[in-house]
């Protein structure tokens, strides 16, 4: 199948949508399809061979961070049109079509089947309601919609008056499972001694719940010599170390902001990965990544986390916000290699469902449904390479 | 220039804009209508495929009740089809499907594709209906060559399996 994918954000800045698009494109190429990705980028940027640059991106504050998107204009519209004409795609797959970007331009220029993936759960319903007429013109050009989380799907149903197929974010299991841990990590972990805890993310952001992990760590450290904490994510080291009493500071290691590869290595370097989030998570991507890296996961009992962890079979859940509960769970698991192994084994099974080739097959089924709804022909499982598990 | 000429010119511009808008709207209604009809044909094909796969499976292992449900779904007249398809979904949920068996896998895959097809059909019918119920469209009786798009109201036919990707 010939597939055209449009990414609204520039690849120079890493981000969830960009990673999603790249991993999906690579998984589809791996399944034997022809894929072209249109994304904002300078002509001289180094890009994967399947990416077509659509010109300069400008920074735009969006959703609490700065996204780099291509602006509307005659030049970018021409490029989008030319790319669509030359590509002669069987299906066009746009990401985040509701922000003014390449994706929106592509939807407006497209003629054939269009599949749209909604990543963020935008809840500014008044804005959506005000622009309903304009939005309708855009939305009715979309044949099939995908939402990456239950929350994103809810927005579709409640505010945009349409359904969406929920297909979770994939995780490139091979990329996480294949890397070496950082040198010297995770070290020994025996009864009553040693062990490494991991945390990844903005430790300053309240909903990530870092203080809960800090309290549990500070309470547990005196009773457990050799216990270490590995933290990665954006932030000032002083803000991090300042939170810990002097006597345990040398047992905390801070890596700062890490690349995708180092993230995988970091997750391979811990005995227990801790996700103490207090809310606001719609999916829990980091959990699938930790599972893919083979870490045992300890997470707060949020809906999204419980779903990923299969109700607690693939990772230990503790009451959200409860530092004492987390401490108990950590002490118990660090002393019990058999229980860790059982959780990790179940985690391997769970994460196999999120592996990109598996997720990409489900996306292909949506492509097939969109093509069928456009011209009424029915596509065989074999033609799109849909054999195997789904 | 004479004031009358301005008036004529302004009227001409308004008429031209109105004509463009009408032609554009008519094209839009036609496009949405055609697409809803294509989606209905695809949905029909997937319903037939699922029923056929279920019949094959019933002959192989699960026997009379599932076979009867599949047959009834295949032969149902349009007015009874939704009920017959729901009944088939219930029968399929009642049996234990083993994803390792090719006949079972065929039913599972057909149900998954049917679920997508149903979702897309519902969305496209909604778009077509909302376009056709606009006052201007009704006034000009655009799309009157097509029947009013109908929803196909059945339960979600997805078969929940332990091996399936957890969603929801």
UniProtKB/TrEMBL annotation, chain A:
For this protein, the record's InterPro entries field holds:
Glyco_trans_4-like_N, Glycosyltransferase_grp1
Organism annotation: Micromonospora wenchangensis
This protein's name: Alpha-(1-2)-phosphatidylinositol mannosyltransferase
A biological process term (GO) from this entry:
carbohydrate derivative biosynthetic process
* Domain Glycosyltransferase subfamily 4-like N-terminal: from-to ranges: 14-173
Q: Name one GO molecular function term.
A: glycosyltransferase activity
Top-level taxon: Bacteria
Q: Which Gene3D superfamilies match?
A: Glycogen Phosphorylase B
- Which keywords does UniProt give here? Glycosyltransferase, Transferase
CDD domains in the record, alphabetically? GT4_PimA-like
User: Which Pfam families does its entry note?
Assistant: Glyco_trans_1_4, Glyco_transf_4
* PANTHER family attached to this UniProt entry: SULFOQUINOVOSYL TRANSFERASE SQD2 (PTHR45947)
Q: Does the keyword Transferase apply?
A: yes
């Amino acid at each position: 199948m010939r597939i055209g994918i449009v990414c609204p954000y520039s690849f120079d800045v890493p981000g969830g949508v960009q990673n999603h698009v790249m991993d999906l494109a690579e998984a589809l190429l791996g399944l034997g399809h022809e894929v072209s990705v249109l994304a904002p980028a300078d002509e001289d940027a180094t890009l994967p061979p399947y990416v077509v640059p659509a010109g300069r991106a400008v920074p735009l504050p969006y959703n609490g961070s700065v996204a780099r998107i291509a602006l509307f204009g005659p030049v970018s519209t021409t490029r989008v049109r030319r790319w669509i004409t030359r590509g002669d795609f069987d299906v066009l797959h746009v990401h985040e079509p509701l922000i003014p970007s390449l994706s929106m331009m592509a939807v407006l220029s497209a003629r054939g089947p269009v599949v749209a993936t909604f990543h963020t759960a935008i809840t500014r319903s008044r804005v959506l309601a005000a622009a309903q007429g304009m939005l309708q013109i855009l939305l009715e050009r979309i044949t099939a919609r995908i939402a990456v989380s239950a929350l994103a799907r809810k927005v579709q149903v409640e505010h945009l008056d349409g359904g969406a197929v929920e297909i979770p974010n994939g995780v490139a299991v091979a990329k996480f499972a294949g890397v070496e841990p950082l040198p010297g990590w995770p070290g020994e972990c025996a009864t009553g001694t040693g062990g490494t805890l991991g945390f990844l993310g903005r430790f300053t952001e309240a909903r990530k719940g870092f203080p809960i992990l800090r309290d549990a760590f500070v309470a547990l450290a005196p009773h457990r010599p050799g216990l270490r904490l590995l933290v990665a994510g954006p932030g000032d080291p002083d803000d991090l170390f300042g939170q810990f009493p002097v006597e345990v500071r040398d047992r905390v290691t801070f890596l700062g902001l890490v690349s995708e590869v180092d993230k995988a290595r970091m997750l391979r370097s811990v005995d227990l990965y801790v996700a103490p989030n207090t809310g606001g998570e719609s999916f829990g991507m980091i959990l699938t990544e930790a599972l893919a890296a083979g870490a045992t996961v300890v997470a707060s009992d949020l809906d999204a986390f419980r779903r990923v962890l299969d109700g607690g079979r693939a990772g230990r859940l503790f009451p959200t916000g409860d530092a004492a509960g987390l401490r108990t769970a950590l002490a118990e698991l660090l002393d019990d290699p058999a229980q860790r192994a059982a959780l990790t084994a179940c985690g391997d099974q769970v994460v196999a469902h999120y592996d990109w080739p598996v997720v990409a097959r489900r996306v292909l089924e949506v492509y097939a449904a969109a093509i069928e709804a456009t011209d009424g022909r029915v596509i065989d499982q074999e033609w799109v390479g849909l054999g195997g598990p789904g | 220039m004479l004031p009358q000429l301005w008036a004529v010119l302004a009227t001409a511009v308004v008429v031209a804009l109105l004509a463009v808008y009408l032609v554009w709207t008519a094209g839009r209604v036609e496009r949405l209508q055609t697409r809803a009809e294509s989606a209905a044909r695809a949905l029909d094909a997937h319903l037939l495929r699922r029923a056929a796969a279920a019949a094959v499976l019933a002959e192989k292992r699960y026997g009379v009740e599932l076979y009867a449900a599949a047959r009834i779904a295949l032969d149902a007249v349009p007015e009874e089809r939704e009920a017959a398809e729901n009944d088939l979904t219930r029968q399929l949920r009642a049996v234990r499907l083993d994803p390792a068996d090719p006949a079972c896998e065929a039913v599972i895959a057909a149900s998954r594709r049917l679920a997508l097809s149903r979702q897309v059909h519902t969305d496209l019918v909604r778009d077509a209906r909302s376009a056709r119920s606009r006052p201007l469209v009704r006034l000009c009786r655009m799309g009157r060559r097509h029947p009013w798009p109908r929803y196909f109201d059945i339960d979600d036919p997805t078969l929940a399996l332990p091996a399936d990707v957890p969603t929801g």
